[in-house]
# Entry
Amino acid sequence: MKFDKVNPEIFKEIQVNAGVVMKEFDPINPTLTTENIVCATTGGITVNCTPTFTDYGSDIDNVPDNTMELKRVDGYTCEMSFTVLNMTEETVKMTLGATDTLDDGGIICRPTLDPADFKDFWYVGDLSDGGCIAVLLKNALSTAGFSLKTTKKGKGTVGVTLTGHVSISDPDVIPMEFYIIKGDAVDGTSTTTTATPEDDDEEETGY
Amino acid sequence: MSIEKALYQIYNSFGLTAYEENSVPVEAKMPYITYEVATDNIDTENNIALVADLWYKSDSWSSINAKADEISRALIGGIKKATDDGFIILYRSSPFSQNMIDDSDQSIKRKHLNLECMFITP
# Structure
């Protein structure tokens, strides 16, 4: 026997295209509305959810490292990173994090944080079956600051890293949720379109 | 359906008859599309470059320009087609289109389209 096959179902489960960052998204009634897209991105979007552990067995004699009964989760670093192309007040404020608006409409950083500075963001990306993967980053704040990179004859970009935060009111809730939504549950407004000519044309095509 | 048939269906969804580039009937009348067929599979990391051509017989570039623009917009985000056991997704590539002429007949207007295809197939 040769172990060289794949489950054919995987071809429906592959994530394709860059996806979008959204302000709001309902995983129960998944729909893309352009007003909810936060910004234009380039180079794709990265979503990370990385646990940190303490191994209480690491300094105990005769106990191997990574003994599962002695391992504890310290926390999770939940982040969403992307590069923004379009410069708007909204994208600049998102990138800076804690901001105030000046009387003349200017934007200035604030040296203190306000709970309202922490916002939820969604990453939503296509799956090959027409469905999507959706990731909610809760209580997110930009932690990499604002850095505009320009090039001669090119487009200026701003790198953004949003970090999710736990709330003291519910410290056991990790600030990232994941949804896999099957193709038949998604509203037909996906940007990946499907060609529609009839299938019954065997004679014409010769295929 | 086969990958070849999926490509046929995608190219024939743009409002013109599309022929595989080696199978254009003698009696075919412009405007039409000719397209290259190349296939691959999920093992490939990168998308495969494909080309297609728009063929118009006209003294003006306006109609062929409009059709190229229409196809370009239709390809935003990719056009996906299911095959027997997977999917292909056709995207526009860069530069998307280039004008070309026929030296023997200046009324033949041609746009060379650069595309790329992702093969999510075994």
